[in-house]
Amino acid sequence: MFFQRYIVPGLVIMAVMVGGGYATGRELVEFFVSKGPATGLVGMAFTAAIIGAIAMISFELARQFRTFDYRSFCKVFLGRFWWLFELAYLATLLIVLSVVSSAAGKLLLEMTGTPEALGSVAFMILVAFLVLFGNSFIERVISAWSVLFYIAYGAMFVMVLSRFGNELNTALASSPVHLGEAAWSAVSYTGYNVAVVPILIFVARHFRTRSEALIAGAIAGPLILLPGFALLMALTAFYPSNLNDPIPVTTILQRLDVQWLALLVKLVILGALIKTGAGMLHGLNERIERAMHDKGSTMPSWVRPAVALGCMVFAVYAASAVGIVALIANGYRYASYVFWLVFLIPVFTYGVYLASRGRSQPAAAVSEATGS
Predict the structure, then answer these.
(1) DSSP 3-state assignment of 28?
(2) DSSP state letter for 257
(3) Cα–Cα distances in Å, from 127 out to 67, 122, 137, 171, 306?
């Protein structure tokens, strides 16, 4: 039960966040490495602290008010304006799905020679299949794959350190730390990434006490970004030649030239991309099911894969039309600003006030009070 309460919540969020957040390395280059390796490292530390803080507050709010889907959860701190989060989430969902489908297509092309468009279609089918299953199944699959992800990225970091340690040290030593840029990078990067916390808030259903929720949230911050730190250090060894790479992690693998590691890392990245798509679409399906339940009806089983496929088709088209680099540079950055307004600032203000009161009420009362 310790693992389920304190570790699984962070693993689930990490597994869904990582595909759209840093699995390919493109996001880390865009938000951190491009500011200078040392500044980027400090920015990642700031990011871990912010994510940990938001997870602590969110877990405790969900525990108190018994709200385990994003609609009812957002009503706690946004009231009748909960729909602002939903609009931002739906827009970001399409951006993230576009990014992960594009990355999956490129990886499959590298690994098997499969045309990129066909690889994206295969990715869509796998994601739609996974969202057929419920919370418990998704938690088990995600947690198991997360452990493999840690192993793969840990092995890659150790090999880079042993073979390119001098280059890494030189890059860090020659790069001054700019705290202002580090803080701004953390703010920009955190905004769109923590949007998955309300989507995956069902992980809070295991908490029985305030201390459990707060401890699990505090653990979640560093747990989520631990592979990201390892990847950031590995990317630093090849700075600045990797600043324009669409998938910078493949540059690392090419320089290492270890076939089994390249295959393992690419497989876990594909798994991470699938889990990100499935996790975000699962959150949308949970929202739809809750809405239908509130209206006295039951969600047909075919709706889940239909919703997933519909979103994925649109996302694949957007990915081919815009491109992964532009999507990350522009789409993620603007999404981040929006989520600071509709999620992080409300939670860090009114959410903290509600959590500190320590008074819970049934979810039905929350819905009534907030005008559902």
Answers:
(1) helix
(2) T
(3) 26, 9, 14, 39, 11
Between CA 214 and CA 203 the distance in angstroms is 13
Mean pLDDT of 158-177: 92
Question: In 3D, which of 81, 339, 60 has the Cα closest to residue 187?
Answer: 339
Other Cβ atoms within 10 Å of 49 Cβ, number:
16
Query: CATH classification of 2-353 is 3.40.50.300, yes or no?
Result: no
For position 362, what pLDDT does the model report? 46
How far is the CA of 298 from the CAs of 201, 235, 283, 301, 362, in angstroms? 21, 48, 17, 9, 22
Kindly report the backbone phi and psi dihedral angles of residue 69, in degrees, each rounded to the nearest multiple of 5, phi listed first.
-130, 155
Torsion of CA 286, 88, 195, 61, to 10 degrees: -70
Domain segments of the chain as ranges: 2-353
Determine the Cα–Cα distance for residues 351 and 214; give it in Å rounded to an integer: 14
By CB neighbour count within 10 A (0-12 exposed, 13-18 middle, 19+ buried), where does 78 fall?
buried
Q: Among 241, 232, 237, which residue's Cα sits nearest to residue 185?
A: 232
C-beta separation of 280 from 96 below 8 A: yes
> What is the spatial distance between Cα 99 and Cα 96, in angstroms, rounded to a whole number?
5
pLDDT at 351: 94
Q: Considering only CA atoms, which of 303, 84, 98, 337 is closest in space to residue 198?
A: 84
Q: Is-contact 286 198, C-beta < 8 A?
A: no
Check pLDDT > 70 for residue 258.
Answer: yes
> How far is residue 13 from each of residues 7, 155, 176, measured CA to CA in Å?
10, 22, 32
pLDDT tens, 213-230?
999 999 999 998 988 899
Give the predicted TM-score (pTM) of the model: 0.81
Any idea of the CA torsion for 340, 341, 342, 348, to the nearest 10 degrees? 60
